[in-house]
Amino acid sequence: MKKQFNRMKQLANQTVGRAEKTEVLSEDLLQIERRLDTVRSMCHHSHKRLMACFQGQHGTDAERRHKKLPLTALAQNMLEASTQLEDSLLGKMLETCGDAENQLALELSQHEVFVEKEIVDPLYGIAEVEIPNIQKQRKQLAKLVLDWDSVRARWNQAHKSSGTNFQGLPSKIDTLKEEMDEAGNKVEQCKDQLAADMYNFMAKEGEYGKFFITVSTLPWRDMKAL
């Protein structure tokens, strides 16, 4: 509770300009941080739009998806009608067309399972898992920096007070110095891990870009025409 109080007090002082705010991230990392929001938004909306292209039920295998497709229902309707018309010309045509439509429905279900596995699910992972985990680390770093700034401010204040009041201050200053060093070490550890995760994420931009190359080469027009 005391640490939380000191943290909120330090944040309030920084907000009104009574205390300096320490920025521990380099300009490169700050730029990456801004890009993460853009990348997450792009992946989120791409995932949403791709999901809207599906005719089958998300998360099912090809066989189950095939059974639920509107195209499958059309094929079944044609085949049922062909049995009623028996050996008539129209009956034979309906049987041939029904078989063809059913095969197209099967291919569509397999196609959607591929898109879901190779593109949609990875995009979801980027938008809802990878980037949020990095952003969670960033928030943790911000809290640790606040703790560091807070104890450093109290340490500076104790130093100023030591000029007029020596009683008990040396031990207090030493205690605050230990707290300050410990807080600084936590900041450095968290910052190093965050920086590593940020750079690692950006290093995989080419890999993520392949998802969209795959999307652009998919036969959506042909599949929609089904």
UniProtKB/TrEMBL annotation:
InterPro entries membership: AH/BAR_dom_sf, BAR_dom, RHG17/44/SH3BP1-like
Annotated PROSITE patterns: BAR
Domain BAR: 14-226
Molecular function via GO: GTPase activator activity
Annotated keywords: Cytoplasm, GTPase activation
GO biological process: regulation of actin cytoskeleton organization; regulation of Rac protein signal transduction
Gene Ontology CC: cytosol
UniProt entry tagged with the keyword Cytoplasm: yes
Principal location listed in the UniProt entry: cytoplasm
Locations listed in the record: Cytoplasm
Protein name per Swiss-Prot or TrEMBL: BAR domain-containing protein
Lineage, opening ranks: Eukaryota, Metazoa, Chordata, Craniata, Vertebrata
